[in-house]
Amino acid sequence: xxxIKKILKFFLLTAIIVGCTTTNKSQKxxxxxxxxxxxxxxxxxxxxxxxxxxxxxxxxxxxxxxxEFQAKNPTSIYFQAARYGEAWSLEQTEALSExxxxxxxxxxxxxxxxxxxYARSLYRSSFVYETLGEDVKLVATLMExxxxxxxxxxxxxxxxxxxxxxxxxxxxxxxxxxQKYLKEADQGLRRLLATxxxxxxxxxxxxxxxGSLKLSSMNADNLTYFVQSQKTVQRYLLSxxxxxxxxxxxxxFKKITENYSxxxxxxxSYKENSNTDSFDRIESRRQQFLILGEYLxxxxxxxxxxxxxxxxxxxxxxxxxxxxxxxEKKTYDLLYSKxxxxxxxxxxxxxxxxxxxxxxxxxxxxxxxxE
Length: 371
What we know:
This protein has 371 residues and is mainly alpha-helical.
């Protein structure tokens, strides 16, 4: 069973339990035992297609369809699942404030009676906070989701939540917490692999989700922390690559190259914004060299994960490690050959103008000594 089907099954179960405020009494009696029968209904099949569209990043196309579903089926037992889908589509179309409003509305309805729907909406809202760069709310949301493990799909509760906590703690320069949750994510992943039969497609998708970092709120002030965060979880994307899945390994390759390129462009902007021989330029150069050092560590750690037998690498691994090698070369070029020498202060320039003596021989001072 693919992850899409597992997640949809989770939503359908939630929808069956929740229903809608206008659902009649006979519909409210539907329970989890009716899930398999209900999942074959036309409405369930329609929602399955819409959720799969969102899974493939087609929220702009699914949004009007989720709204049409709600308009046509106001008493459907799947109404709240459709509202969740609407919020997810809004999130993908970058209508972030509206997405949060819909998520919150669903959560307000579900909190006291339908914990699964509440937990899933809460977790999804964390992605909105990540995109907005609201780190405090993101941490709070993920920590609350971590406490709702029984109400989230196991792959989310055991692996995704702790891996994303690790990312955000690395970003806000809390390395101890970052390592703590990275270890928790690894333990959760091992538990999943030991207790569930998992297809390569499902695992590749989970690795992708565990390693995906959004850089929408990145700027010169927090760049170092984003580099540290990317370094913390990039191995999950590399694991996704190794599974050679045509969808999720490809997405992992694109995510790595996209994030590395965005980080590199921000690093290069230090040079572009420093056009004068002033203190600001010297400080900017110093900051750039520090960040280049972190960037080089990130690249080096990724290259250490390159398979020993290159002949057995799949196409996604080959492209990715070629990209890393080029990134390493660019970093060294920028560090050692593409910059002017650091400007000297006026005092240093005056001292540099003083004529230096030629070679001083030992016997000039100590005639009795031999060289």
